[in-house]
């Protein structure tokens, strides 16, 4: 039976790694839509996960399950009885020992447990890391869902995070096909936006380092960005849309680091934002072309990257990670 979301009430969705940056937003939006949510966590009692219990609807419809991705039985218990699974838990590291096995075997475990418990659809959070790491792609090629990272290149350049995500996604497709699981994949680019969790996750550090003075220069490279709420919405859209299939590249814009620091400096001139590029010899790296049309066709309207950067910094201020400037001037107007 396909996933039928004509009424979210009465439907249960399991979200793995529920306390993480992206997963917390997925849990929040699912609860707001009326779903019952089973969140898996390695340690539900860790204070870093306490924010989940404060979400609207959590008291009535959120349960937390102590689960490790490599512990099949605990995973199956959490997934049992669910209509859908959103598998977001993954190590986020370039340490091959910590990255590859939990990403790959954990993902296989989720799909097998979903098959055994007759889950109707699984959504897997993959990454742009499984898509764009290909040195042979021409500069005019549009990066879209048909692109796959070159595993040998990832290994040779020690990009173990990208390698792990690409191999995990491949494993997800293989096991889903073998077990007859309805799988849809979301491939987000670097995710920014307000944090629901108390600690700062890896992708937000990407911006934080430009505000604390720890980065004295910026790199001569480009990066694609997307807002965390849009990423969470994308997961729910592909879960709920019966015709959704395959991969969905989730990206709003590609910027050079020079553009990022310029936007930050305009919005937040009070911080020691770098003004110099670390590489003054080579030509400025050019943004690559990409397509987010598949998600747009499902109705997703992406938040502009400027707004996303603004909300990220405001959130870091609210969390006390960044000092709030004492002399607040006129609020800055954001122009997209
Ligand atoms: N943020 C980005 O820019 C970005 C971009 C593309 C894709 N993604 C993908 O999005 C997902 C979430 O990333 P995030 O940015 O939200 O990172 P995050 O905040 O670090 O969350 C990762 C989650 O995975 C859990 N986890 C890690 N290893 C685990 C294991 N062995 N067993 C069970 N749970 C485990 C963590 O739990 P603990 O708290 O117990 O460690 C945490 O809840 C990942 O799959 C990541 O690859 C992220």
Automatic annotation (TrEMBL):
InterPro entries xref list: Epimerase_deHydtase, NAD(P)-bd_dom_sf, NAD(P)_dehydrat-like
Pathway involvement of the protein, from the record: Aromatic compound metabolism; phenylpropanoid biosynthesis
EC class of the enzyme, as a word: oxidoreductase
Reaction(s) the record says it catalyses: (E)-coniferaldehyde + NADP(+) + CoA = (E)-feruloyl-CoA + NADPH + H(+); (E)-4-coumaraldehyde + NADP(+) + CoA = (E)-4-coumaroyl-CoA + NADPH + H(+); (E)-sinapaldehyde + NADP(+) + CoA = (E)-sinapoyl-CoA + NADPH + H(+); (E)-cinnamaldehyde + NADP(+) + CoA = (E)-cinnamoyl-CoA + NADPH + H(+)
Keyword NADP: yes
Ranges of residues in domain NAD-dependent epimerase/dehydratase: 13-245
Protein name as annotated: cinnamoyl-CoA reductase
Record keywords: Disulfide bond, NADP, Oxidoreductase
Family as reported in the entry's similarity comment: Belongs to the NAD(P)-dependent epimerase/dehydratase family. Dihydroflavonol-4-reductase subfamily.
EC number: 1.2.1.44
Coiled coil regions in record: none
Pfam families: Epimerase
GO molecular function: cinnamoyl-CoA reductase activity; oxidoreductase activity, acting on the CH-OH group of donors, NAD or NADP as acceptor
Gene Ontology terms describing biological process: lignin biosynthetic process
Metal-binding recorded as keyword: no
Domain of life: Eukaryota
